[in-house]
Design a protein that fits this description.
Three copies of one chain form a homotrimer.
Chain A: E1 2-3, H1 4-11, E2 14-16, E3 22-23, E4 25-26, E5 36-39, H2 46-50, E6 56-60, E7 70-73, H3 76-87, E8 102-103, E9 108-109, E10 114-115, E11 120-121, E12 126-127, E13 132-133, E14 138-139, E15 144-145, E16 150-151, E17 156-157, E18 162-163, E19 168-169, E20 174-177, E21 182-185, E22 188-191, E23 197-200, E24 205-206, E25 211-213, E26 219-222, E27 227-228, E28 233-234, E29 239-240, E30 245-246, E31 251-252, E32 257-258, E33 263-264, E34 269-270, E35 275-276, E36 281-282, E37 287-288, E38 293-294, E39 299-301, E40 306-307, H4 308-319, H5 321-339
Parallel strand pairs in A: 4-5, 5-6, 6-7, 8-11, 9-12, 10-13, 11-14, 12-15, 13-16, 14-17, 15-18, 16-19, 17-20, 18-23, 19-24, 20-25, 23-26, 24-27, 25-28, 26-29, 27-30, 28-31, 29-32, 30-33, 31-34, 32-35, 33-36, 34-37, 35-38, 36-39
Antiparallel strand pairs in A: 1-3, 2-7, 21-22, 39-40
Chain lengths: 341, 341, 341
């Protein structure tokens, strides 16, 4: 329970309405009750906003919503995120170490670590303070995990991988499996050594069933604050910078570098040894060829990927292709007439 | 063991041949023995049909197959499915609760529930009659599961998700992981609250390693009778209607709505807040842009997706592009000749 | 620890430099210390090679690297793979059967099998000599696994699947889940029987979270020596030949046949009942239509896939489309002028 007055202070906003009102939870405009905080995003139709029963609504500065208790802020969605942290109950206290968790006597667990039933922690592993390993998690030998991480059920971390602090791995994530490299010779595939490591920095979150391979000889790295969606493939020796966003089912091939603040749409595919510089935006389903460099700040789309403006123009021309063909046919006929009258 | 006479009654078909013959199992035309029932599909070459050793063959009404015991029906494949249910042995009796299954004393299990080794059922969960949880399944707090469901090994259902009756989840499926929503501000990604639920209605089947995220504030829903293949991504707040079919590796972005009887091919990608109305057919690898509406009953193809007829025409024009360019070159030359003689 | 002299003999190469030098491990040119063996690939810039601190470098025949101890061989990368096998320590001795592993009294385990904690082996299963099942692996009834296989954590093998020798399945792989086949009738989806098997031959390696469905009536097969990357979908009744390579997130639909020595790039999609003959190369993100035949040795690209040369030409024409449209516009104007002067 928190007063509107306190929320306004927290998010740096200006109240219109009842500053003493209290909210207990957060919700969308549609489902909110008088106990809830909601927010208005640019997409919300006015009608939905006006009819909301929310106890308090975060609205953009310069807008008005008579008859509702509101807090006007520069960025309502961001304010909502911050307010939700204050309103929602803290996580339940960690459950401690379940008696069925198998923890090697040669592993090092900091105080306050929680390990769920049937989880396995092998020798040489170290787990930082306040980290939670859920049911059935597997932590291989010599793995290092920082503080206040959450590993959901059935995550598997192969030997030697290193995770920073506040890392979140959703169910079924695999970290450190072998990279995919073979040399065809003498009629069969010879496997290249996959001996390298994986380093996942602080505040990375990785979605369900995503796979991150270890480096072959070098290291696979995911920079601090980057967020990766479900079912993404990160191959051996990929380097991802900081605060980048990679949507579901994207695949990043071996040796590719991704900069900081990059945004990659869903199902994009990036070839080997490409370089996606910082602040690039890659469209969903785009395909980037091996070795390609995408310059800082550019927006690319399509397969093979092109600058978005060019893609859009081409796409318009493509749609006009039947008409173009008709015109050419007409021209050819006239021409013919002209020549053989 | 069942007689041809009984099968014919069951599927509403007409026998030619030996009505007293008995079959014990089902098989394809090629591998069938005299103990097996087989069926003819439109794709089967006549030669394969004639040489089949099957004890009984389901054939389309109006066709003939002298020398074989056959049952003529309107829809042989459907009849085969129904007959197979009668012929094949019922599932083995449920194994009961394995002594290593960890079931919270605050969970509610109906009679006849089977829980495999090393499965975990947390407090507040409820499991309906005849439901089977295989080895290593994880059921979070407050999860509700209906009757006669099957959850294969290593399925993880996060807290609060709700499953109807006869739901089948194949190995490695993750239900209820956090949606993927961030706001970039102050130099880092702020995670949007992911508090919503997941509702999976009756008779839904979901393939291996598919992921279904919870709603952010609202709910993610999958309607009764819909079937989802392996490695599919269903994002937060997606709503899928009834009896729809979604093939492998398709990704559906946040807030998108899919109607009833929709069919989506493999590796299709659907952007955020799109609406795919009922009975739409989306081609494999198609890409549907965010916010796009695909009208009821239409067939779309390509990226960005277009009506199939248009796609086909464009594609033919695309193939003709080199010839078109040649013609234009020729026209330009003639023109030039005409102008500067 | 191994002498350069011995390595040269092993890989059939010619030494320049100190044949008595010893190496202990392998590394990339950049990270190598004087204790390491490295190799030069075609991609390595000369500067990187010259400045390497590696104790010994495998170089291509006919090249020179004064000041370094080198071994000249026909294929340095292949030689490196072979040398690494000799240099790197053998795998640790198998751990034996963990006391928490649940092995049916009706399963058959050869001597020297290792079964990790919380793994489950059901009745009728047989596991060959030297095979290792990691933590949490699930082996269903009647599954057959050959010798010296490695199944990483949380692999699930459904009942009846058969694996050869030296098969490697990475974490989260699912073998033998039901194929995806439904018939829409009477307003709902009827599931086709999924009774078939899966056969995985010797020396197959399959990446994390990949899914392989059982045959519906027939069998799904993966031929000896084929290598499959992470998050790949192999549908029911697919047949893959020998020594083929399938990169991450590719999907192969039901009933499709893939030959020997085929290479398929990442995120390719192959429709039902297609046939990809031996030594075909399928580009990343390519889409192959159902029923399509790709002839032996061809290279295909794009969606729908075309021969690479044709794709490249088309793609160039596509890029020229705005210019072509401009030309046609110009021609149309001139024409008009000529006609109505």
């Amino acid at each position: 329970m928190i007063k509107v007055r306190e929320l306004a202070r927290l998010v740096g906003g200006k109240i219109e309405g009842d500053a003493e009102r209290e909210v207990r939870s957060v919700a969308s405009l549609e489902s909110a009750t008088p106990d809830d905080l909601a927010f208005v995003s640019a997409k919300n139709a006015l009608e939905r906003v006006v009819s909301s029963r929310a106890g308090c609504i975060l609205i953009p500065e310069g807008t008005f919503l008579p008859g509702h208790t509101v807090i006007a802020v520069a960025h309502p969605k961001l304010a909502f995120i911050k307010a939700a942290k204050a309103i929602l109950p803290a996580l339940p206290p960690l459950a401690g170490i379940h008696p069925t968790a198998l923890i090697s006597s040669e592993a090092r667990l900091a105080p306050g670590v929680s390990v769920g039933p049937y989880a396995v922690v092998e020798r040489g592993a170290s787990i930082g303070e306040g980290t939670e390993l859920a049911a059935g998690v597997f932590i291989g030998e010599e793995v290092q995990i920082g503080e206040r991480c959450v590993l959901y059920p059935h995550v598997a971390v192969y030997r030697g991988a290193r995770l920073g602090n506040h890392v979140v791995l959703h169910a079924g994530v695999v970290i450190g499996s072998d990279g995919f490299g073979y040399v065809l010779a003498e009629g069969r595939q010879h496997k290249f050594p996959q001996l390298g490591g994986v380093i996942i920095e602080d505040d990375v979150e990785i979605g369900s069933n995503t796979t991150v391979d270890r480096g072959s000889l070098g290291v696979t790295t995911i920079g601090a604050g980057s967020k990766i969606d479900n079912l993404v493939q990160i191959a051996h020796n990929v380097h991802i910078g900081r605060h980048s966003i990679i949507a579901a089912q994207t695949g990043i091939s071996g040796g590719t570098e991704i900069g900081d603040y990059v945004v990659i749409g869903g199902q994009a595919g990036i070839g080997e040894h490409a370089r996606i510089e910082s602040r690039v935006l890659v469209g969903g389903q785009a395909g980037i060829l091996p070795g390609k460099v995408i310059r800082e700040g550019s927006i690319v789309w399509g397969t093979p990927a092109r600058p978005f403006a060019e893609f859009r123009k081409l796409y318009a021309h493509l749609s006009g292709l039947p008409e173009l063909a008709r015109q050419v046919k007409k021209l050819s006929k006239k021409k013919s007439k002209g020549q053989y009258p």
